[in-house]
């Protein structure tokens, strides 16, 4: 959700010449630049969290839910890529809709994501805490005080690190998705954590949902893994590619995401059905998986807390002279970071009262993604050409349909 820096976020521009702002790199291979930014934006902590959650909610239908999400996310990304070409500078999703619809839209998206990021970090912390308790007990824990204390401890570590001067080196940030993917693949291959039985009281799935309701909850929660489909708004405006090469870049990026997520889901299903799956993972290996998962996910919480604070800081831009930096450019104030941390802890405490705390907390990022992508579709209808308007209307109709169909099933169980 955090784009590359830009001097005038969201300002409308005329199409740039070859190599604009890129040193000619994207002018030569713009589709690879778009694909890299898109796949890098989507693939993150969700590689560890979402395969077990989706499997717990959908059982044997996980591939169908994953495929629906990737198809919808790829469509949104293609719509955004075509929308921003020649219309806005490289910026965030909020900056894009703000430039095309007005400042109210930018504030709406920033506000939604500032809140949603805190709920998302609570979900990440709950998942990491559940993994640590699973390593100790051999099975997924029930929601309760033990999981809450661990989740709060992980969040506290991330927030205190965010309050300090620590910054992860660029090489660590580049390697982190690869390490996360490798760890997710190892966990899936060993079937860890094991998918809970239907109706079990665990943080991964609320009992009592109908089969349809559970699948809709899985599809909605997957928008957490899909926060990043909008990453094209930071690169497509300067990629200097024609429509075909832009579409090819989005298709290549979406294909990369599909290979990773469908691959993880497939490996997990095969591991669950293998005879060796009947044998419990050994205690030392459980601890290796759990500690590695906790470390990786805490690092994501650390960077995401700062990201949420930067987004929150944009909601009240400070008065400044032309030579001064904005709060988001010089880094968020410690008070804002502390407020974000307090909000994370609030959501974590709320999760202690729920079965299925992880997917239910992930509905926060899902709602923010729906708001942002919905406003982008509205912008396409208002500002695009005939084809883009039809595409925007179709995406908006699908997003509204998802909400209309999912909410009654989720509330009705």
Key descriptive features of the protein:
globular, 16 helices, mainly alpha, 413 residues
Short précis:
The chain is mainly α and 413 residues long. The chain has helices at residues 25-28, 30-42, 46-58, 62-84, 93-101, 103-137, 145-163, 170-189, 211-225, 243-273, 283-313, 327-330, 334-351, 357-361, 363-383, 386-412.
What is the H/E string? Answer: HHHHHHHHHHHHHHHH
Overall geometry: globular
Number of helices: 16
Count the beta strands. Answer: 0
In helices, the fraction of residues equals 55-70%
Q: Characterize the main sheet.
A: none
Which segments are poorly predicted (pLDDT under 50) over 5 or more consecutive residues?
Answer: 1-27, 319-325
Task: Report strand %.
Answer: under 5%
Rg for CA atoms: 21 Å
Q: What is the mean pLDDT?
A: 83
SS-derived structural category: mainly alpha
Distance between the termini: 32 Å
Structural features, described:
This protein starts with 24 loop residues before the first helix and ends with a helix. The protein is built from 16 helices and no strands. The radius of gyration is 21 Å and the shape is globular. The protein is mainly α and 413 residues long. Helices cover 70% and strands 0% of the residues. The chain has helices at residues 25-28, 30-42, 46-58, 62-84, 93-101, 103-137, 145-163, 170-189, 211-225, 243-273, 283-313, 327-330, 334-351, 357-361, 363-383, 386-412. The longest helix has 35 residues, at 103-137.
């Amino acid at each position: 959700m955090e784009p590359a820096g830009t001097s005038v976020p969201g300002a409308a521009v005329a199409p740039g010449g070859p190599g604009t702002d890129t040193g000619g790199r994207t002018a030569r291979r713009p589709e690879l630049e778009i694909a890299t930014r898109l796949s890098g934006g989507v693939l993150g902590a969700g590689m560890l969290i979402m395969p077990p959650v989706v499997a717990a909610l959908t059982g044997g239908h996980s591939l169908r839910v994953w495929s629906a999400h990737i198809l919808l996310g790829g469509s949104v990304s293609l719509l955004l890529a075509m929308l921003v070409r020649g219309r806005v500078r490289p910026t965030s999703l909020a900056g894009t809709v703000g430039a095309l619809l007005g400042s109210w839209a930018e504030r709406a998206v920033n506000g939604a994501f500032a809140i949603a990021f805190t709920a998302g970090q609570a979900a990440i912390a709950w998942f990491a805490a559940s993994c640590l308790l699973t390593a100790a007990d051999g099975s997924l824990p029930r929601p309760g005080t033990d999981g809450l204390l661990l989740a709060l401890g992980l969040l506290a570590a991330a927030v205190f690190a965010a309050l300090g001067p620590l910054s992860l080196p660029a090489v660590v940030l580049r390697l982190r998705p690869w390490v996360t993917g490798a760890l997710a693949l190892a966990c899936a291959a060993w079937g860890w954590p094991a998918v809970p039985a239907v109706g079990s009281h665990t943080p991964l799935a609320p009992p009592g949902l109908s089969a349809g309701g559970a699948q809709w909850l899985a599809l909605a929660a997957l928008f957490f893994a899909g926060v990043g489909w909008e990453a094209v708004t930071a690169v497509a405006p300067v990629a200097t590619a024609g429509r075909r090469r832009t579409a090819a870049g989005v298709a290549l990026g979406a294909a990369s995401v599909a290979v990773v997520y469908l691959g993880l889901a497939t490996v997990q299903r095969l591991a669950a059905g293998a005879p060796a799956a009947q044998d419990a993972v050994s205690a030392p290996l459980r601890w290796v998986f759990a500690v590695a998962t906790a470390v990786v996910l805490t690092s994501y919480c650390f960077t995401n807390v700062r990201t949420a604070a930067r987004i929150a800081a944009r909601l009240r831009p400070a008065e400044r002279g032309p030579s001064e930096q904005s709060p988001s450019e010089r880094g968020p104030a410690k008070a804002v970071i502390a407020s974000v941390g307090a909000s994370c802890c609030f959501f974590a405490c709320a999760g202690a009262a729920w079965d299925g705390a992880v997917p239910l907390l992930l509905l926060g990022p899902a709602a923010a993604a729906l708001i942002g992508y919905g406003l982008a579709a509205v912008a396409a209808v208002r500002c695009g050409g005939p084809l883009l308007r039809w595409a925007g209307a179709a995406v908006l109709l699908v997003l509204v349909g998802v909400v209309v169909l999912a909410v009654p099933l989720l509330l009705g169980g």
